[in-house]
User: Fold this.
Amino acid sequence: MAITDWPESERPRERLLKHGAAALSDAELLAIFLRVGVRGASAVDLARTLLGHFGSLNRLFAASAAEFADIPGMGSAKYAQLQAVLELARRALREEITSGDALSSPRAVRDYLRLTLSNLPHEVFMVLLLDAQNRLLAAEELFRGTLTQTSVHPREVVKLALAHNAAGAILAHNHPSGIAEPSRADEALTQSLRQALALVEVKLLDHFIVASQAEPLSFAEKGLI
Assistant:
């Protein structure tokens, strides 16, 4: 049955307008994005198929164009639309932490890092550089590694901080394993970078580990910085 044949009170778009987006399920929100279904399946049915196939919203967002097209009814146009929505979300979050105190918006920082790093198949190390008011100056991917490790050079992090005249820095890297727990190597690297940045009077404010199966882990909250 098409969604237009449903009772108005059950239609995702009407429910969103009446109750707000937070009241809808993942499948209902995705159905509004899809707009239409395919033969024999409504947009909600198709949304449920997508979520069932990929297992989670994060995994769906990280899908390649080829993986997305494996689902009947999906193609390059829908994939491009989805990527555009995700990029708009990243830019909105980046605006928030650029225009205000990043440390007073920890949720925005976490969400930005999750959208940027979660579900990547390889390990990536990023540095967020802040001015004296903790406003974002730059977010740079410095190193890209394998599934298990990446080589991070303190001198490159220091050079980047000096190039932007930064007063503070937030580090971030992802764990493709899906587990957001710091290893001893992660802790040792954090202390090495903290000491290197301190030599040029740049304060290391935090280090986040981003993984698909958990909230981004904050070293500062864990007392590891």
Q: What stands out?
A: The radius of gyration is 20 Å. Residues 76-99 form the longest helix (24 residues).
